[in-house]
Write a structure and sequence with these properties.
This protein has a single domain, classed as 3-Layer(aba) Sandwich (Rossmann fold), CATH 3.40.50.1110. It is an alpha/beta fold and 214 residues long. The protein has eight helices and six strands, in the order E-H-H-E-H-E-E-E-H-H-E-H-H-H. 29% of the residues are buried.
Length: 214
Amino acid sequence: MRLLTVGDSFTWGQELDDNTSAWPYLLSARLEYTLDNQAKPGSGNLRMVRYAIEHIDNYDMIIIAWTHFARNEFADDCGFFDIWPGFNSKYFKDIIPHRVELIEYFNKHHNDDYMYRQYLINIILLQKYLMLNNKRYLMLDAFGNHQYSGRNSEKNKDLLEQIDSTYFVGWPDKSMMEWTWGTEMGVGGHFLEEGHVKVAEKLFYQMENLSWVN
C-alpha cells in the first residue's frame, strides 16, 4: 500500500532531531505502507489540495493534515509560494523582491471570514473528489482552525453541515495541538517525539475503527 501525507511543519517534523521520527513515518511503519511525505514547513492548504489531486493515481491512501485556514498558496513566473497574515518577508533571505508587494497587501487587506469559508470549501471538494476516485483518506487539523471565532456562526452552517466527520479525525474541535498537550515542545512551538507518537496513535486508532487495519 502506498501512503501520501501532505501538511505543514507539524507533518514534516519541524524541530525534531530527525524528521523521520515524525508521525507519518511512525504511522506508515506500523501499517507497513510505503510512505511519501510531501509535507512542507509553511505550506498553505491550497498546495495540499493541488498536490493530492495532481498525484492521486500514485497512492492507495491519502492523509491531509490541514494547516491554519489563513495560509494561502500563490504562484508567479518564479513558481509557487505560500504566505499568511503576519508573514514578514524580512525573515526570509531568499524572498523574491516583487513578491513583497503582494505580501504587504495581503497583510493589510486580507479577510478572515472569506479565507475560513475557502478552507471549508476545500475540505468538502477534496472529500468528494477522493470519494469519487475510490481513495481511502483521512483528514485532520494541525492547529487553530476550530478556534476561529466565526466557526460556528450561522453564515457557515451551510458548509459545516457538508463535512463528513467520519474521515476527519478530531472534527469538530480537536487538532494535533490538543492531542499533544502536555508533551515536550520545541522553542518554535512544535511538538517533539512524544507528540508525534500520539498523533500516529490517534490516526491508527481511527483506521482500526474503520476496519482498515487487519
